[in-house]
Amino acid sequence: MEPVISIRDVAERAKVSVGTVSNVLNRPHIVADATKARVHEAIKELEFVRNESARQLRAGASRTIGLVVLDVANPFFTDVARGVEDAANEADLAVILCNSDGDPAKEARYLDLLDEQRVRGVLITPVGAQDERLARLRQRGISVVLLDQRSRAGDRCSVAVDDVRGGELAVAHLLEGGHTRIAFAGGPPGIQQVKDRFSGAKRAMRKAGRDTAELRRFDDIALSSAAGRRIGATIAELPSGERPTAVFCVNDLMALGLLAEASQRGIDVPGELAVIGYDDIEFASTSTISLSSVRQPRHELGVTAAKLLIDEVENDAHEHRRIVFRPELTVRASSAVTTRDSAAGGRVTG
Ligand code: RIB
Q1: Are 201 and 173 in contact (CB under 8 A)?
Q2: Among the atoms of ligand 1, which is closest to the Cα of residue 74?
Q3: Using alpha carbons only, what angle is made at residue 6 by residues 24 and 118, rounded to the nearest 5 degrees?
Q4: Mutate to test the pocket of ligand 1, among 278, 280, 296 (most ligand atoms within 8 A of CB)
Q5: Contact indicator for 310, 91 with CB cutoff of 8 Å
Q6: Smallest Cα–Cα separation from 218: which of 245, 248, 175, 263?
Q7: Which of 71, 79, 147, 281 is the pocket-test mutation for ligand 1 (most atoms within 8 Å of CB)?
Q8: Confidence of residue 345 (pLDDT cuts 50, 70, 90)
Q9: pLDDT at 18 over 90
Q10: N or C, which end of the chain is more exposed by having fewer CB within 10 Å?
Q11: Are the C-beta atoms of 161 and 125 separated by less than 8 Å?
């Protein structure tokens, strides 16, 4: 068994006192940046882990798994987390919930913390490509499963919905409704789900014989209702002849924010502006104007991902799997254009 690297080893490597290393770990705000950088470099080189993880190494593996999500305030992730917790509880495991806020640095800090806590495994919806960090977790015996994103080439398990197909379903529905000026309301362009949903939206335009350049894109720095309100204000302030007649929002929170902005500005939905979201969270159906949405099986995503992780941790014969669910379109008042949609209950499987 490799000797456990001590805080003293880190201090010697960084040429600082043990107390300084302790400050970097516990009170980083009082340490000069240059010193902090030297200590963190020594920690990385020596692969130092803190005492509590060394204790757990001696006492056996912890009974926890980590779940890192982009936005804990988004009901999509709340429903996914519920599925994770249900599966973890069945396996007598607890869940450590981490909220990255879409910030790569915050996500990295949480991954380091979960490493220190020696969790059995990590479920993550990554902000961007954290390949090096996720690979290092695996090297340290911590399994990783991607949630709401597909892994590449089967290098790890993943559970997601076919977001390209989901984006296509959303815009095909708007095109079938006769809309000619369609907008895409997206979040941070670097997030894979946003990229995939936009790709699907463009595919729907091509299949309808339309130029993808006609799909007018509005981006925001967030995937929140406030972001939806900001994009709604931008759209509302366009000259009427230029304003889109329909908008596909990359998730329901944005769509609900945009609906609120349209309502506040007296814009008729769906008459002047049809709206469709993505996730089909509970609030989509209870909104004042019920929201059409592309459904993601949120609880099932969480259960499935947690079960894959637990199997990888406990089953030596585990084989990686990429599970992709099919999206479903649910048509409601915010985009219904004919009695056909409302009569059919509006559910179309992708
Ligand atoms: O995970 C990124 C986005 O995909 C989240 O905003 C969530 O709503 C899902 O749709």
Answers
A1: no
A2: 8
A3: 80
A4: 278
A5: yes
A6: 248
A7: 71
A8: very low
A9: no
A10: N
A11: no
Q: By CB neighbour count within 10 A (0-12 exposed, 13-18 middle, 19+ buried), where does 154 fall?
A: exposed
pLDDT digits (tens, 9 = 90+) for 48-70: 876 655 555 545 568 999 999 99
Q: Is 199 helix (H, G, I), strand (E, B) or coil?
A: helix
CA of 150 to the centre of ligand 1 (A): 13
Contacts of residue 182, defined as CB under 8 A and 6 or more positions apart, other chains included, come to 171, 174, 175, 205, 214, 215, 216, 244, 245, 246, 247, 248
pLDDT given for residue 338 in this prediction: 52
- Given pLDDT bands bounded at 50, 70 and 90, which one contains residue 47? confident
Give mean pLDDT, residues 272-299.
97
Q: Residue 165 is encoded by which pair of tokens?
A: 């197909």
> Is 262 in a helix, a strand, or coil?
helix
| Amino acid sitting at position 36 | K
Instruction: Tell me the residue length of the chain.
Output: 350
Question: What is the pLDDT, as a whole number, of residue 19?
Answer: 85
